[in-house]
Amino acid sequence: MLQENMAEAVRDDVTGEKFIPASQRPDGTWRKARRVKQGYVPQEEVPVYESKGTQWMKSKPTLPPGFYPDPEEEVKQMSEEDKYAGMSKAAKKNAKRKEKKKQQQGDGGVGPVTQGLEQVNIANQSQEAKINNGQSQDSTAEPAKKLKNLKKKLRQIEDLEAKIESGEIAKPDKTQLEKIQRKSDILKEIRELEKQVGS
């Protein structure tokens, strides 16, 4: 790879040809002197090839036809860039964070996140209302699902009890003991749900 520029090419006084003088590589070996033709351009200075499609995409305007940007907004964007000029990346980030905090405090603490949460809560309430209206249709499906899950929990509790009795688990955790204590509550719930599903 040739890393020298055209500026480093030297003209030989005797022959009048240009050449790049010999140079030493970082590993200590030497490059030979190279003859260079008249119009030579080093590899690093050759512009990257762009297809017609790429050139066309770059020349396309970013805004929709007929829309012209507001000059005041451009000035604001320029002033923001000037404001952070000379700052490191982290310093810019911290400055922007401080500005956001000041803006939120000025708004009474109600930011776009809070407004978004309010909208989500409203949407959830409307979904709950729809679910309650359609609950009569799914009245058998929900208890059956819950019953299945409770039976699964009961099987897990019984497996845990068997492991403790056999000595597989010498000292059960606090959570395991709590799980075993809930067995009677789960059995009651299973009986109630079986009555609901059966009727």
Please, could you describe this protein's structure?
- The chain is 56% helix and 6% strand.
- By secondary structure, the protein is mainly α.
- A hairpin with a 5-residue loop joins strand 3 (23-24) and strand 4 (30-31).
- Mean pLDDT is 76; it is low at 1-7.
For the biggest β-sheet, the strand order reads: 1-2-5
Can you write the helix and strand succession as a string?
Answer: EEEEEHHHHHHH
Q: Taking all residues together, what is the mean pLDDT?
A: 76
Secondary structure tally: strands: 5
Largest sheet: 3 strands, antiparallel
Shape: elongated
SS-based class: mainly alpha
* Poorly predicted segments: 1-7
Cα(first) to Cα(last) distance is 85 Å
Relevant terms:
56% helix, 5 strands, 7 helices, 199 residues, mainly alpha, two-stranded antiparallel ribbon, elongated, disordered N terminus, three-stranded antiparallel beta sheet, single chain
Structure summary:
The protein is mostly helical.
Outline the secondary-structure elements:
Layout: E1 10-11, E2 18-20, E3 23-24, E4 30-31, E5 34-36, H1 52-59, H2 71-83, H3 89-106, H4 112-133, H5 141-166, H6 174-181, H7 183-198
Antiparallel strand pairs: 1-2, 2-5, 3-4
Helix pairs in contact: 5-7
